[in-house]
Amino acid sequence: MTFQNTRKLPTVRRWPGAPVIFTVGAFVTVGWAVLLLLYGVTLRWVGFDLLLGAALAVTAALARRDDDRVSLMATAVATLVLTDTFFDLTTAHADYLPTALVMALTLEIPFALACLAYALRRHRHHHGPTHRAASPRGR
Question: Model's pTM, two decimal places?
Fold first, then answer.
């Protein structure tokens, strides 16, 4: 016997700010990558930031179209941002480490968490309430 979660989720209206935030993020990230390239930063950092910019642009397009796959892309963006943050912090020179730490705590980690919250909310909206497995006691 399975139990179904009958709790009703609140109606989720499409949030018009999401495509704008993801679009701005894409432009800022690609601009930052170009700036890094002009200053001679290694191609691996520039390439990763361009990948992140592309992921942000795809997420913006999916959010604009209200596509179900936006939750997957928002999760991918969060993963890329957290990966970038990890490598920024672990490879930073001593003189850049305070800046990297401030950016991680005030911008990158909160943005990644917001992307995950957005993805979860959209996933629940499009796929309905979750189902619970049968009780281990057979009830």
Answer: 0.79
